[in-house]
Structure prediction request, 224 residues.
Amino acid sequence: MKIAILGTGGVGKAFATRLTDLGHEVCVGTRDVSKTLEKDGEAGFKHFQSLNPKVKLATFSDAAAFGEIVINVSKGANTMDVIKAASSNLKGKVLVDISNPLDFSNGMPPSLIPEYSNTNSLGEEIQKYLPDTKVVKTLNTMWNGLMINPALIGNGDHVNYICGNDTEAKKKVISLLNEFGWKKESLLDLGDINAARATEAVLPIWLRVYGAKQSGAFNFKIVS
Prediction:
């Protein structure tokens, strides 16, 4: 499958590597290809691409055109700008949104951006802006290492939430999650996209646990 990833940071690189290993064609989207490739050092995308030559790099719009499924891993504060840049090529597509509306302006730990919390969410805002796109929110409540390899802890026996308005879109996303190693019993469908209000609100407690443990290698489990 052709999969686009919107965002060139650590999460985007992790997804690109995993998806390529799984046999998918991957194109990563960025605002300015030339500037992204100018960054030197091991953290730069040029170095990453030298180690992962199958991964393509394109503008947000061109990456969205490439992908049969599009995964948004951009920073929450920038997400709507990224979505607007890609919007012309997102109509009718499944968009997996993994972003969180975090405000780092007052340092660590960040808070939630007020306009995207409580009675709204970033997932909902994306869906409002893209009424013809099938937005599915998932994987946003954990460290990126677990997103793409849940078996890293507890044999994968921990929860991943999913929500969205389109049932068939969620089925497609669940199929991709299964490829990552997510078990059926670990996936909890919370309903339509307004459930993103709840999953994005997991981040304040997640960040406090991260601070206490000094490690992102943990997740939550539903016990009933």
Summary: The chain has ten helices and ten strands. The mean pLDDT is 96. The first strand starts at residue 2 and ends at 6. The CA atoms of residues 34 and 58 lie 10 Å apart.
